[in-house]
């Protein structure tokens, strides 16, 4: 199987290289990039630089199957959907600024959130050419390296600004009224079904894995799943959503926040191929769930700082939306927390997973029953800013 996948990758790489010769982006080399499972992604070194001097671009190619598992079929509609998102958002940027002290001077941190610049999309070959961001990393790796448990409290304001800019950006996307984009996203029903399955079916599957912890909440979990299914029945009430909004799909320069000052810091939201009509809570729950996981599993305060900024960036929310977001964070922590590699796969790691799963269960139960008092004390207090 591994040999077949390697042959497939080599064949696709050769075809993409030849296709690039027919475009402005003819290249001297193609280098496979890590990340992503559905598409073939390469960094291309151009034979001649672009107008801005760039000599590298990203080339993303889709086939009617998953790149990491060619036996698994998947619609190429995802490629057109991502390209349409890039086009709709090409001129949209959200910036947050905050002043902070660095040595003996005050400097300004500018977080500027946008999508990658789409340079070319060919719908006949399902291939995109987009800007390459050198010396960048995804936000999950960034938090692990630059904002871990050793991160000083002085970085709280920058973390808050970063989260707020991301929250403002995705909130504006959810409220986008572009009729063409909405119609395009309607076609992504396959991803809509997948999104539901990996959240609510996986949440219920965890009851079997942690029966002593989750068994007493199974009826509420089932009710949450049924509620989410009913949401999909009312298409006119659904918003356009990213579909896979988590720190791993957000790029930022791979230098410390202290160094990201006095100049615009691009924060790039990538991988829009799962964009779909849905509840905004699924985007918020995934993003915030991952940020809370940094605090719950690794004791990183930065996870909470960014999450608090993100919530502020969403602006004024109705009561039902607040409860829905809280529910979805719990769903994400239960569905993905035990499998995401947060802790070692040993006895102690299993205990830690159980501890986090139990907190997530309480979050779901109390959000479902809308018990505000739980959020004012104990473990619930860390979630107080959600309500």
UniProtKB/TrEMBL annotation:
<dbReference type="InterPro" id="IPR011009">
    <property type="entry name" value="Kinase-like_dom_sf"/>
</dbReference>
<protein>
    <recommendedName>
        <fullName>Aminoglycoside phosphotransferase domain-containing protein</fullName>
    </recommendedName>
</protein>
<feature type="domain" description="Aminoglycoside phosphotransferase">
    <location>
        <begin position="100"/>
        <end position="309"/>
    </location>
</feature>
<dbReference type="InterPro" id="IPR002575">
    <property type="entry name" value="Aminoglycoside_PTrfase"/>
</dbReference>
<dbReference type="Pfam" id="PF01636">
    <property type="entry name" value="APH"/>
</dbReference>
